Amino acid sequence: MLQTKTNATTELLLLLMLATLWGASYTFIRIGVATIPPITLIAARTLIAGGVLFAIIRWRGLSLPKEPAIWRRFFIQACLNSVLPFTLIAWAERTVDAGLATILNSTTPIFTFLLAAVLLRNERVTAYKLFGIAIGLAGICFIIGFDALNGVGRQLPAQLAVVVASACYAGAALFGRNFKGLDPMMPAVGSLLCGAVILIPVSLVVDQPWTLTPSTASILALLALAILSTALAFSIYFRLIQTLGSIGTTAQAYLRVPIGVAIGVVFLGEPLTQTAGIGLVCVIIGVMAMTMTPRRKAASG
Question: 24, 66, 120, 163: which has the highest count of C-beta atoms within 10 A?
Fold first, then answer.
């Protein structure tokens, strides 16, 4: 019994660590883009994280798949899960606070349901899910709407970019179903390496990184983003999938948002406006309604 409690405590601590690592990623990005252009920052993030995860799977005695069809899927997954959303968020955080980006990016479950219901038609529409969609989208509108009312606000395009990134993550979650049968870490490694292959040439042409003079803080933030919030976070995530299951692991989403906002407030001195606070509450309630209710029904069946 004592051993069981110890194991459960370990897994819960890892869950909290995962939420913290992913919540902190928005602050690392905010610091990184201060002196490193978004494309170069994300190119380095995917290359470093992909390299670390590749070393881990080799240490585990595994090899990357060789089938061209799988690598084509890795490239598609890379576009949906890293190239587009990582770059959009990094570009947005040149003007948008890390805490606000955290809130807006937490709407991925809502977009996942909408895409599954509209495109795949394999999601049952229930009153709880409709409530989750409505209040979650209301949270987005509450945050973004005030910029729109003031004309095209300075942050409006950047805020919309984070919302588009959330939709990309939703597409990646649905496309990820094509990797059944593979070790769960393989899509992460393959897509990150593919993301680096896509972004590095763009970075060389657009940013000419050899001409940049990034600050020490930005370099350290990049390393923390790649090693801690990407490589280590993915390793913890895949462990929790095995121990807590996919349902238990999704609990980090509820923790990540307030943690990410708090990190931005404490370490970057970002203000949490009343509008953002109300939007935060709406989004958390919406995501919980979207993700928790169906599982209870499934469990009872």
Answer: 24
**Cβ pair 143, 100 in contact under 8 A:** yes
Give Cα separations from 163 to 56, 159, 186 (angstroms): 32, 7, 27
Q: Which residue has the tokens 């769960």?
A: 184
Residue 217 Cα to chain centre, angstroms: 22
> Which residues, 6+ apart, have CB-to-CB distance to 102 below 8 Å?
23, 26, 256, 257, 260, 261, 264
Alpha carbon distance 282, 301 (integer Å): 29
Question: Beta-carbon neighbour count of residue 200 at 10 Å?
Answer: 17
Secondary structure of residue 212 in the 3-state scheme: coil
> Tokens for 166?
């959330």
The whole-number average pLDDT for the span 85-90 is 97
Q: Do 104 and 166 meet the contact criterion of CB atoms below 8 Å apart?
A: yes
Dihedral pair phi/psi, residue 124, rounded to 5°: -80, 130
- Where is pLDDT greater, at 108 or 191? 191
Cα–Cα dist 158/154, whole Å = 8
> Which two structure tokens, joined as six digits, stand for 114?
């909408």
Write the CA distances from 235 to 93, 102, 137, 220, integer angstroms.
26, 21, 31, 21
- Distance (Å, rounded) from C-alpha 227 to C-alpha 236? 12
CA angle 253, 257, 262 (to 5 degrees): 145
Question: How far, in Å, CA of 157 to CA of 92, rounded?
Answer: 8
Q: How far apart are CA 198 and CA 294, in angstroms?
A: 37
Q: What is the mean pLDDT of the chain?
A: 85
How big is the chain by its Cα radius of gyration, in Å?
Answer: 19
- CA dist., res. 236 & res. 130, Å (int): 32
Q: Which of 95, 84, 13, 6 is nearest to 46 (CA)?
A: 84
